[in-house]
Amino acid sequence: MSAAPTFSEALSEAERVRILAKTARFEPPPAVLPDGRRDLVGLSRAELTETLALIGEKAFRAKQLWHWIYHQGVTDFARMSSIARPLQRKLAEHFVVGRPQVATVQTSADDTRKWLFRFRDGQEAETVYIPDPAEDRGALCISSQVGCTLSCRFCHTGTQALVRNLGAAEIVGQFMAARDAYGEWPSPTGETPRLLSTIVLMGMGEPLYNYENVATAMRIAMDHEGIGLSRRRITLSTSGVVPMMDRAGAELGVNLAVSLHAVRDELRDELVPLNRKYPIAELIAACRRYPGASNARRITFEYVMLRGVNDSEADARALVRLIAGIPAKVNLIPFNPWPGSAFQTSTPAAIERFARIVMDAGFAAPVRTPRGRDILAACGQLRTEGQRARLTG
Ligand code: SAH
Ligand code: SF4
What we know:
Structural class: alpha/beta
Shape: globular
Bound molecules: S-adenosyl-L-homocysteine, iron/sulfur cluster
Largest sheet: 9 strands, mixed
Radius of gyration: 21 Å
Number of helices: 12
Number of strands: 13
Oligomer: single chain
Strand content: 15-25%
Distance between the termini: 65 Å
């Protein structure tokens, strides 16, 4: 017999139920074309098997299709050579292997590339490829929602109301479409270097307010008979949805990045209003119990540097006291201004001073160099220029 849940566990469970119920109100439309054909991308293995059973196909077909869809990256049933012609035709009558449509794509002078992807209902979200200048690989920054329910004061996405959640197909589809663009199919087996070798969930939206779809998409990306990304190569960034952090840690075990940005509740309440619900002490406690955190797999604390707001030496010292003992690194992100934003970027000297204190306490404190400035591609503050142009144009 299992022990009765403690008060705080019961509270967390109630919170999770509430969050998931709210999430359901923003579900994406079904992944079905107007002609009735269903998109097979975004189905879990079990769902793919069930879907094929609906047209009388056996379970081993799901395995075959999984290989073609996620290992080979094939979108045309006629190219699936291990499947006989009549079945190829039957599959094409009922299903498609979809991709988000590229609305715009821009490549920066530093090779950062930004896509605006359009989904079937016309909604759009941005994805950014950020090359690692030191290596032949890079990270794909993907979006989890169109807009965001939260309204962090320094974030441009936060000025846009949540339109809807992205579905699992739309989330993993951003990665698959980027692989199409770089010609990186089939998926590598072993450690073959690939440009698209890392996913960061740092685009538009709060991934832990769209947990089920994000989890399905990440499980697909991690499945080793398909895309096969290791969980160490996926980082989920959250503004601090504490009850869901536990669940993501237990179920997905991906790397965690936490958007901290302030070390006093009074200030964090202002900058990251979610702090009023899950204050710093609770957030840090959730980081301390995050499974798998170790020196090899550190938790990333993101800290946006706002001039005269959160960048003092006292803030830096309070930060290292707060995270003492957590295997962590601190990403210092120079604030990226947008029209109408109320903040300025910290001076280089202030960033330097702050970084020094954090490093002296034994934490890595890289300053995230701005990438793709010329195409407004700063990961995590993706701007909907296209949308604004259409609204004003
Ligand atoms: N909603 C999640 C993930 C998307 S935001 C989260 O908040 O963590 C990804 C990162 O970009 C966050 O750390 C966010 O605080 C940061 N960010 C948002 N706007 C920014 C800006 N204008 N300048 C620099 N970083 C910003
Ligand atoms: Fe949403 Fe993250 Fe922007 Fe906050 S920083 S408004 S949680 S996308």
